[in-house]
Design goal:
The chain is built from nine helices and 13 strands. With 398 residues, the protein is α+β, with helices and mostly antiparallel strands.
Length: 398
Protein backbone atom coordinates (compact mmCIF):
# COMPACT_ATOMS: atom_id res chain seq x y z
CA UNK A 1 0.00 0.00 0.00
CA UNK A 2 2.85 2.37 0.69
CA UNK A 3 4.23 1.60 -2.66
CA UNK A 4 1.02 2.44 -4.23
CA UNK A 5 0.69 5.60 -2.32
CA UNK A 6 4.29 6.48 -2.99
CA UNK A 7 3.76 5.73 -6.65
CA UNK A 8 1.09 8.46 -7.01
CA UNK A 9 2.57 11.33 -8.96
CA UNK A 10 3.42 14.28 -6.87
CA UNK A 11 1.98 17.68 -7.68
CA UNK A 12 4.61 20.12 -8.72
CA UNK A 13 5.54 22.66 -6.19
CA UNK A 14 4.19 25.53 -8.12
CA UNK A 15 0.70 23.99 -8.55
CA UNK A 16 -0.76 26.16 -5.84
CA UNK A 17 0.60 29.19 -7.62
CA UNK A 18 -1.09 28.31 -11.01
CA UNK A 19 -4.64 27.82 -9.64
CA UNK A 20 -5.09 31.40 -8.40
CA UNK A 21 -4.14 32.60 -11.88
CA UNK A 22 -7.01 30.59 -13.36
CA UNK A 23 -9.52 32.01 -10.87
CA UNK A 24 -8.39 35.50 -11.59
CA UNK A 25 -9.00 34.92 -15.26
CA UNK A 26 -12.71 33.91 -14.70
CA UNK A 27 -13.40 36.95 -12.50
CA UNK A 28 -12.84 39.52 -15.27
CA UNK A 29 -15.55 42.12 -15.70
CA UNK A 30 -18.61 41.24 -18.10
CA UNK A 31 -18.36 37.48 -17.82
CA UNK A 32 -19.55 36.92 -14.27
CA UNK A 33 -22.12 34.09 -14.70
CA UNK A 34 -24.05 34.85 -11.51
CA UNK A 35 -24.55 38.52 -12.41
CA UNK A 36 -25.71 37.65 -15.94
CA UNK A 37 -28.26 35.17 -14.65
CA UNK A 38 -29.67 37.67 -12.18
CA UNK A 39 -30.02 40.36 -14.82
CA UNK A 40 -31.81 37.93 -17.16
CA UNK A 41 -34.27 36.95 -14.43
CA UNK A 42 -34.91 40.60 -13.65
CA UNK A 43 -35.71 41.46 -17.26
CA UNK A 44 -37.93 38.40 -17.65
CA UNK A 45 -39.86 39.38 -14.54
CA UNK A 46 -40.55 42.88 -15.88
CA UNK A 47 -41.75 41.58 -19.25
CA UNK A 48 -43.98 39.02 -17.58
CA UNK A 49 -45.63 41.70 -15.47
CA UNK A 50 -46.25 43.86 -18.56
CA UNK A 51 -47.81 40.94 -20.43
CA UNK A 52 -50.06 40.09 -17.47
CA UNK A 53 -51.23 43.72 -17.20
CA UNK A 54 -51.96 43.85 -20.93
CA UNK A 55 -53.95 40.63 -20.86
CA UNK A 56 -55.88 41.82 -17.84
CA UNK A 57 -56.69 45.11 -19.57
CA UNK A 58 -57.97 43.32 -22.67
CA UNK A 59 -60.15 41.02 -20.58
CA UNK A 60 -61.65 44.00 -18.75
CA UNK A 61 -62.40 45.78 -22.04
CA UNK A 62 -64.08 42.69 -23.50
CA UNK A 63 -66.22 42.23 -20.40
CA UNK A 64 -67.26 45.89 -20.46
CA UNK A 65 -68.16 45.68 -24.16
CA UNK A 66 -70.25 42.55 -23.66
CA UNK A 67 -72.18 44.04 -20.76
CA UNK A 68 -72.80 47.22 -22.75
CA UNK A 69 -74.13 45.27 -25.74
CA UNK A 70 -76.53 43.37 -23.51
CA UNK A 71 -77.81 46.58 -21.97
CA UNK A 72 -78.21 48.25 -25.37
CA UNK A 73 -80.08 45.31 -26.92
CA UNK A 74 -82.34 45.07 -23.96
CA UNK A 75 -83.17 48.75 -24.24
CA UNK A 76 -83.93 48.54 -27.96
CA UNK A 77 -86.17 45.52 -27.51
CA UNK A 78 -88.21 47.30 -24.89
CA UNK A 79 -88.45 50.36 -27.11
CA UNK A 80 -89.96 48.30 -29.93
CA UNK A 81 -92.61 46.94 -27.61
CA UNK A 82 -93.75 50.38 -26.49
CA UNK A 83 -92.91 52.88 -29.25
CA UNK A 84 -93.29 56.49 -28.28
CA UNK A 85 -93.27 59.41 -30.70
CA UNK A 86 -90.89 62.14 -29.59
CA UNK A 87 -91.41 64.47 -32.55
CA UNK A 88 -94.73 65.99 -33.52
CA UNK A 89 -95.70 65.07 -37.13
CA UNK A 90 -95.44 67.89 -39.63
CA UNK A 91 -97.20 68.28 -42.98
CA UNK A 92 -95.17 68.27 -46.18
CA UNK A 93 -94.89 71.67 -47.86
CA UNK A 94 -97.50 72.41 -50.51
CA UNK A 95 -94.89 73.26 -53.14
CA UNK A 96 -92.37 70.49 -53.64
CA UNK A 97 -89.86 70.47 -56.45
CA UNK A 98 -90.38 67.69 -58.97
CA UNK A 99 -87.43 65.31 -59.32
CA UNK A 100 -85.76 65.37 -62.71
CA UNK A 101 -86.46 62.24 -64.73
CA UNK A 102 -83.29 60.82 -66.24
CA UNK A 103 -84.02 59.32 -69.62
CA UNK A 104 -80.51 58.17 -70.39
CA UNK A 105 -80.15 54.40 -70.85
CA UNK A 106 -83.76 53.74 -69.85
CA UNK A 107 -85.23 50.93 -71.90
CA UNK A 108 -88.33 49.42 -70.38
CA UNK A 109 -89.13 51.90 -67.76
CA UNK A 110 -92.50 53.50 -67.63
CA UNK A 111 -93.84 56.49 -65.70
CA UNK A 112 -97.51 55.49 -65.26
CA UNK A 113 -99.12 52.30 -63.95
CA UNK A 114 -102.27 51.02 -65.62
CA UNK A 115 -103.05 48.21 -63.18
CA UNK A 116 -103.59 50.43 -60.17
CA UNK A 117 -106.23 49.62 -57.60
CA UNK A 118 -109.50 51.48 -57.63
CA UNK A 119 -109.25 54.67 -55.56
CA UNK A 120 -111.22 55.06 -52.39
CA UNK A 121 -114.48 56.96 -52.44
CA UNK A 122 -115.85 55.74 -55.79
CA UNK A 123 -118.81 57.83 -56.89
CA UNK A 124 -122.23 56.24 -56.85
CA UNK A 125 -122.90 54.06 -59.89
CA UNK A 126 -126.66 54.62 -59.56
CA UNK A 127 -126.49 57.98 -61.32
CA UNK A 128 -129.21 58.70 -63.87
CA UNK A 129 -127.73 61.76 -65.52
CA UNK A 130 -124.92 62.90 -67.77
CA UNK A 131 -122.65 65.49 -66.17
CA UNK A 132 -119.33 67.24 -66.72
CA UNK A 133 -116.15 66.49 -64.79
CA UNK A 134 -113.17 68.89 -64.88
CA UNK A 135 -109.80 67.17 -64.99
CA UNK A 136 -107.60 67.87 -61.96
CA UNK A 137 -103.87 67.58 -61.33
CA UNK A 138 -102.77 63.94 -61.21
CA UNK A 139 -105.80 62.60 -63.09
CA UNK A 140 -105.56 60.10 -65.92
CA UNK A 141 -108.28 58.36 -67.86
CA UNK A 142 -108.00 55.18 -65.77
CA UNK A 143 -108.35 56.99 -62.44
CA UNK A 144 -111.33 58.96 -63.69
CA UNK A 145 -113.08 55.85 -64.99
CA UNK A 146 -112.55 53.99 -61.72
CA UNK A 147 -113.71 56.98 -59.73
CA UNK A 148 -117.11 56.86 -61.41
CA UNK A 149 -117.40 53.09 -61.77
CA UNK A 150 -116.95 53.10 -65.55
CA UNK A 151 -114.63 51.43 -68.04
CA UNK A 152 -111.75 53.57 -69.32
CA UNK A 153 -112.96 53.17 -72.90
CA UNK A 154 -116.34 54.62 -71.91
CA UNK A 155 -114.64 57.82 -70.78
CA UNK A 156 -112.57 57.97 -73.98
CA UNK A 157 -115.42 57.15 -76.39
CA UNK A 158 -117.79 59.56 -74.65
CA UNK A 159 -115.30 62.38 -75.14
CA UNK A 160 -113.99 61.66 -78.63
CA UNK A 161 -115.23 65.06 -79.77
CA UNK A 162 -112.90 66.61 -77.19
CA UNK A 163 -110.00 64.16 -76.94
CA UNK A 164 -110.10 62.54 -80.35
CA UNK A 165 -109.14 58.88 -80.37
CA UNK A 166 -106.32 59.01 -77.82
CA UNK A 167 -106.22 60.09 -74.16
CA UNK A 168 -102.96 62.03 -74.69
CA UNK A 169 -104.78 65.37 -74.56
CA UNK A 170 -106.13 64.81 -71.07
CA UNK A 171 -104.92 67.92 -69.23
CA UNK A 172 -105.80 69.98 -66.19
CA UNK A 173 -108.97 71.98 -66.75
CA UNK A 174 -110.35 69.83 -69.60
CA UNK A 175 -114.09 69.19 -69.22
CA UNK A 176 -115.14 65.57 -69.73
CA UNK A 177 -118.57 64.08 -70.22
CA UNK A 178 -119.34 61.38 -67.65
CA UNK A 179 -122.09 58.91 -68.56
CA UNK A 180 -124.18 57.04 -65.99
CA UNK A 181 -123.55 53.70 -67.75
CA UNK A 182 -120.83 52.07 -69.83
CA UNK A 183 -121.13 52.78 -73.53
CA UNK A 184 -120.49 55.91 -75.56
CA UNK A 185 -121.84 59.31 -76.56
CA UNK A 186 -122.86 59.90 -80.17
CA UNK A 187 -123.51 63.23 -81.86
CA UNK A 188 -126.21 62.79 -84.46
CA UNK A 189 -125.37 63.98 -87.96
CA UNK A 190 -127.70 64.81 -90.79
CA UNK A 191 -128.29 61.90 -93.16
CA UNK A 192 -127.50 59.16 -90.64
CA UNK A 193 -129.76 56.15 -90.26
CA UNK A 194 -130.59 54.68 -86.87
CA UNK A 195 -130.04 51.14 -88.10
CA UNK A 196 -126.57 51.96 -89.44
CA UNK A 197 -125.48 53.85 -86.32
CA UNK A 198 -126.69 51.09 -84.02
CA UNK A 199 -124.99 48.41 -86.12
CA UNK A 200 -121.70 50.31 -86.14
CA UNK A 201 -121.72 50.46 -82.32
CA UNK A 202 -122.87 46.85 -81.97
CA UNK A 203 -126.28 47.44 -80.35
CA UNK A 204 -129.93 47.11 -81.31
CA UNK A 205 -131.59 50.37 -82.48
CA UNK A 206 -134.23 50.03 -79.77
CA UNK A 207 -131.49 50.25 -77.12
CA UNK A 208 -130.83 53.82 -78.24
CA UNK A 209 -134.48 54.74 -78.73
CA UNK A 210 -135.65 53.35 -75.38
CA UNK A 211 -132.89 54.82 -73.21
CA UNK A 212 -134.65 57.45 -71.02
CA UNK A 213 -131.96 60.15 -71.18
CA UNK A 214 -132.19 60.28 -74.98
CA UNK A 215 -135.79 61.54 -74.89
CA UNK A 216 -136.82 59.47 -77.90
CA UNK A 217 -139.79 57.25 -78.67
CA UNK A 218 -140.65 55.02 -81.58
CA UNK A 219 -143.58 57.22 -82.46
CA UNK A 220 -141.44 60.39 -82.63
CA UNK A 221 -138.49 58.74 -84.37
CA UNK A 222 -140.57 57.20 -87.11
CA UNK A 223 -138.67 55.40 -89.86
CA UNK A 224 -135.37 54.05 -88.47
CA UNK A 225 -133.78 54.39 -91.91
CA UNK A 226 -134.60 58.11 -91.97
CA UNK A 227 -135.30 58.96 -88.33
CA UNK A 228 -136.69 62.21 -87.07
CA UNK A 229 -133.67 63.14 -84.92
CA UNK A 230 -132.35 66.68 -84.86
CA UNK A 231 -128.72 66.99 -86.09
CA UNK A 232 -126.36 67.77 -83.20
CA UNK A 233 -128.43 65.79 -80.69
CA UNK A 234 -126.21 63.91 -78.23
CA UNK A 235 -127.33 60.34 -77.69
CA UNK A 236 -126.20 57.83 -75.04
CA UNK A 237 -125.52 54.41 -76.57
CA UNK A 238 -125.63 51.99 -73.60
CA UNK A 239 -123.26 49.06 -74.06
CA UNK A 240 -121.99 50.46 -77.34
CA UNK A 241 -118.40 49.99 -78.47
CA UNK A 242 -116.27 51.63 -81.13
CA UNK A 243 -114.76 49.07 -83.51
CA UNK A 244 -111.23 49.35 -84.78
CA UNK A 245 -111.30 50.96 -88.19
CA UNK A 246 -108.73 51.27 -90.94
CA UNK A 247 -108.08 54.97 -90.61
CA UNK A 248 -105.63 55.28 -93.51
CA UNK A 249 -105.91 53.51 -96.84
CA UNK A 250 -103.09 51.26 -97.96
CA UNK A 251 -100.64 52.54 -100.55
CA UNK A 252 -102.34 50.91 -103.53
CA UNK A 253 -105.84 52.20 -102.74
CA UNK A 254 -107.23 55.46 -104.06
CA UNK A 255 -108.26 58.01 -101.43
CA UNK A 256 -109.99 61.34 -101.71
CA UNK A 257 -107.27 63.09 -99.70
CA UNK A 258 -109.57 63.55 -96.70
CA UNK A 259 -109.48 60.35 -94.66
CA UNK A 260 -110.95 59.80 -91.23
CA UNK A 261 -107.80 61.21 -89.63
CA UNK A 262 -107.74 64.44 -91.60
CA UNK A 263 -106.58 66.00 -94.86
CA UNK A 264 -103.05 64.59 -94.91
CA UNK A 265 -103.74 61.30 -96.67
CA UNK A 266 -102.49 60.31 -100.09
CA UNK A 267 -102.92 57.06 -101.99
CA UNK A 268 -102.69 55.35 -105.34
CA UNK A 269 -98.97 54.70 -104.82
CA UNK A 270 -98.29 51.53 -106.76
CA UNK A 271 -94.50 51.41 -106.45
CA UNK A 272 -92.35 52.15 -103.43
CA UNK A 273 -90.22 50.75 -100.66
CA UNK A 274 -91.34 47.55 -98.98
CA UNK A 275 -90.71 46.80 -95.32
CA UNK A 276 -88.03 44.42 -94.15
CA UNK A 277 -90.44 42.63 -91.82
CA UNK A 278 -88.69 43.77 -88.64
CA UNK A 279 -89.11 47.02 -86.72
CA UNK A 280 -86.62 49.22 -84.93
CA UNK A 281 -87.10 51.89 -82.26
CA UNK A 282 -88.68 55.11 -83.60
CA UNK A 283 -86.82 57.25 -81.04
CA UNK A 284 -83.47 57.24 -79.28
CA UNK A 285 -85.23 57.14 -75.89
CA UNK A 286 -86.97 53.84 -75.14
CA UNK A 287 -88.79 54.91 -71.96
CA UNK A 288 -92.43 55.94 -71.67
CA UNK A 289 -93.57 59.35 -70.49
CA UNK A 290 -97.29 58.62 -70.71
CA UNK A 291 -99.64 55.78 -71.48
CA UNK A 292 -98.74 52.15 -72.11
CA UNK A 293 -100.31 50.00 -74.81
CA UNK A 294 -103.83 49.29 -73.54
CA UNK A 295 -106.40 48.99 -76.35
CA UNK A 296 -109.00 50.14 -77.06
CA UNK A 297 -108.29 53.09 -74.78
CA UNK A 298 -104.69 53.59 -75.92
CA UNK A 299 -103.57 51.82 -79.06
CA UNK A 300 -99.88 52.68 -78.89
CA UNK A 301 -96.94 53.74 -76.73
CA UNK A 302 -96.04 57.25 -75.54
CA UNK A 303 -92.26 57.53 -75.83
CA UNK A 304 -90.71 60.38 -73.84
CA UNK A 305 -88.17 62.89 -75.06
CA UNK A 306 -87.55 66.58 -75.66
CA UNK A 307 -88.76 69.10 -78.20
CA UNK A 308 -86.87 68.45 -81.42
CA UNK A 309 -85.80 64.88 -80.60
CA UNK A 310 -85.43 62.88 -83.83
CA UNK A 311 -88.17 60.54 -85.00
CA UNK A 312 -87.16 57.62 -87.21
CA UNK A 313 -89.03 55.27 -89.53
CA UNK A 314 -89.46 51.94 -87.72
CA UNK A 315 -89.18 50.11 -91.04
CA UNK A 316 -88.88 50.86 -94.72
CA UNK A 317 -91.99 51.90 -96.62
CA UNK A 318 -93.99 54.74 -98.16
CA UNK A 319 -95.55 57.67 -96.28
CA UNK A 320 -99.31 57.54 -96.97
CA UNK A 321 -100.31 60.26 -94.50
CA UNK A 322 -98.40 63.40 -93.55
CA UNK A 323 -99.97 66.47 -91.96
CA UNK A 324 -102.47 67.61 -89.40
CA UNK A 325 -104.90 65.10 -87.89
CA UNK A 326 -108.36 66.06 -86.69
CA UNK A 327 -108.45 63.16 -84.21
CA UNK A 328 -106.12 64.45 -81.52
CA UNK A 329 -102.85 63.27 -83.06
CA UNK A 330 -101.66 66.72 -84.08
CA UNK A 331 -99.05 66.45 -86.81
CA UNK A 332 -99.10 62.84 -87.94
CA UNK A 333 -97.12 60.59 -90.26
CA UNK A 334 -98.35 57.14 -91.30
CA UNK A 335 -95.94 54.80 -93.10
CA UNK A 336 -97.25 51.87 -95.12
CA UNK A 337 -94.79 48.96 -95.09
CA UNK A 338 -96.83 46.69 -97.39
CA UNK A 339 -98.26 43.34 -96.31
CA UNK A 340 -100.92 45.11 -94.23
CA UNK A 341 -98.42 46.79 -91.88
CA UNK A 342 -98.61 50.51 -91.02
CA UNK A 343 -96.92 52.59 -88.31
CA UNK A 344 -98.17 55.88 -86.83
CA UNK A 345 -96.04 58.78 -85.50
CA UNK A 346 -97.88 61.72 -83.91
CA UNK A 347 -97.60 65.06 -82.05
CA UNK A 348 -94.61 66.18 -84.11
CA UNK A 349 -93.32 69.73 -84.67
CA UNK A 350 -94.71 71.84 -87.51
CA UNK A 351 -92.55 71.98 -90.62
CA UNK A 352 -90.45 68.90 -89.81
CA UNK A 353 -92.55 66.17 -91.45
CA UNK A 354 -91.50 64.46 -94.67
CA UNK A 355 -94.24 64.88 -97.30
CA UNK A 356 -96.87 62.31 -98.17
CA UNK A 357 -95.71 59.90 -100.89
CA UNK A 358 -92.08 59.87 -99.72
CA UNK A 359 -90.13 56.61 -99.83
CA UNK A 360 -88.27 56.03 -96.56
CA UNK A 361 -85.70 53.56 -95.35
CA UNK A 362 -85.70 51.80 -92.00
CA UNK A 363 -84.13 54.13 -89.41
CA UNK A 364 -84.45 57.24 -91.62
CA UNK A 365 -85.25 60.61 -89.99
CA UNK A 366 -88.87 61.53 -90.79
CA UNK A 367 -89.74 64.33 -88.31
CA UNK A 368 -88.97 65.94 -84.93
CA UNK A 369 -90.70 65.32 -81.61
CA UNK A 370 -93.20 67.92 -80.45
CA UNK A 371 -96.47 68.38 -78.57
CA UNK A 372 -99.04 69.23 -81.23
CA UNK A 373 -102.66 68.14 -81.08
CA UNK A 374 -104.08 66.76 -77.86
CA UNK A 375 -100.85 66.58 -75.90
CA UNK A 376 -99.60 67.89 -72.57
CA UNK A 377 -95.87 67.71 -73.29
CA UNK A 378 -93.28 66.59 -75.83
CA UNK A 379 -93.55 62.91 -76.65
CA UNK A 380 -94.10 60.48 -79.51
CA UNK A 381 -97.36 58.57 -79.69
CA UNK A 382 -96.36 55.49 -81.70
CA UNK A 383 -98.74 52.86 -83.08
CA UNK A 384 -98.35 49.69 -85.11
CA UNK A 385 -101.29 48.32 -87.09
CA UNK A 386 -101.76 45.12 -89.06
CA UNK A 387 -104.65 45.15 -91.53
CA UNK A 388 -106.08 48.13 -89.70
CA UNK A 389 -105.99 46.58 -86.23
CA UNK A 390 -103.60 47.80 -83.51
CA UNK A 391 -100.92 45.42 -82.25
CA UNK A 392 -98.63 45.70 -79.26
CA UNK A 393 -95.36 47.42 -80.33
CA UNK A 394 -93.45 45.77 -77.47
CA UNK A 395 -93.83 42.46 -79.32
CA UNK A 396 -92.06 43.74 -82.44
CA UNK A 397 -89.58 46.51 -81.60
CA UNK A 398 -85.93 45.49 -81.47
Amino acid sequence: MNKNFDSQPLEPENASQKEPATIEATNEPGIDKDDTHIKFLSKFSVLSRIAIYAIAFIVVVLIAWGVGALVTNGTQASAELTPTSTVAPTKAPVIVSTPVMISENKVDGISRRLDMEAPQGVESTNRQDVFTYTVEAGDNIFDIAQKFGLKPETVLWSNRYTLGDTPDGLGIGVDLVILPVDGLYHRWSEGEGLNGVASFYGVDPDVIVNYPLNGLSKENVGDYANPNIQPGTMLVVPGGTRPNVSWVSARDQEVSGNSYLGPGACGGIIYGNVGTGSFTWPTTAHWLSGYEYNPPVHNGLDFGGDFGSPIYAADSGVIVYSGWSDRGYGNLIVIDHDGGWQTYYSHMIDGTLLPCGSNVQKGQLIASMGSTGNSTGPHLHFEMRLNGYPVNPWDFLN
